[in-house]
Amino acid sequence: TQISICRDLPNIEVITFSVNGISDLEPLHQCQNLSELYLRKNNITSLDELFYLKTLPRLRVLWLAENPCCGPDPHRYRMTVLRNLPSLQKLDNQAVTEEELSQALVDGVEITAPPARRSVENGWSESTMCSAAGSTTEPDSELLTCSLEETNKTQEELDVKPVPRDKYSSFSPQETDCSCKKRNNVLNAVLLLMTELDTEGLEIIQQTVARRLQAFHKKELQEE
């Protein structure tokens, strides 16, 4: 829910924070080398948070969809984002056109001040309390679908082929809530790290994966 660590990462270039409870983007304003930012499905309630992104000169890709700040009017939302971040080349996985940037000057709202925040009591901000109070436990039958969809969304962000649903068909209800989410988190982390590797690094990964698969197949044959 809080990303204060970003204040200590001035050279970071790509951040994927999709599907969390983030509501405050202030720590990002010091990430001057940031070029891609994925914030889909968080708890960002106001487009005023864009104020902190206006100072990022290299930001070209932003994914902000499925946040409360998007509101009921998708056109007004997109125009407001583009008016304040005219250097974007892609917003919510959709390319930005010159026509949109021109229209944004007319239909978008200029953000000139940071969002107003309530005072913090006992370490909890208002947005954090609202998020906690409004959270609900998903039924077991929905957790697998949700978890798989979020994994595939992250892979879509990275232009990676989605995971087939039958790969997860063997999960039991007990595994779904914990083990399934853990598997997806690990998978997302591995995919993100692989984008930073060169040919030599990827070959090492390939060899390691091959050995792991052989070990798993050998174990399955022994069990049979």
TrEMBL record:
<dbReference type="InterPro" id="IPR032675">
    <property type="entry name" value="LRR_dom_sf"/>
</dbReference>
<dbReference type="InterPro" id="IPR003603">
    <property type="entry name" value="U2A'_phosphoprotein32A_C"/>
</dbReference>
<dbReference type="GO" id="GO:0036064">
    <property type="term" value="C:ciliary basal body"/>
</dbReference>
<dbReference type="GO" id="GO:0097733">
    <property type="term" value="C:photoreceptor cell cilium"/>
</dbReference>
<dbReference type="InterPro" id="IPR001611">
    <property type="entry name" value="Leu-rich_rpt"/>
</dbReference>
<comment type="function">
    <text>Plays a role in cilia formation and/or maintenance. Plays a role in the regulation of cell morphology and cytoskeletal organization. Involved in DNA damage repair.</text>
</comment>
<dbReference type="GO" id="GO:0007010">
    <property type="term" value="P:cytoskeleton organization"/>
</dbReference>
<keyword id="KW-0677">Repeat</keyword>
<comment type="subunit">
    <text>Found in a complex with CFAP410, NEK1 and SPATA7. Interacts with NEK1.</text>
</comment>
<feature type="domain" description="U2A'/phosphoprotein 32 family A C-terminal">
    <location>
        <begin position="74"/>
        <end position="92"/>
    </location>
</feature>
<dbReference type="Pfam" id="PF12799">
    <property type="entry name" value="LRR_4"/>
</dbReference>
<keyword id="KW-0433">Leucine-rich repeat</keyword>
<dbReference type="InterPro" id="IPR025875">
    <property type="entry name" value="Leu-rich_rpt_4"/>
</dbReference>
<protein>
    <recommendedName>
        <fullName>Cilia- and flagella-associated protein 410</fullName>
    </recommendedName>
</protein>
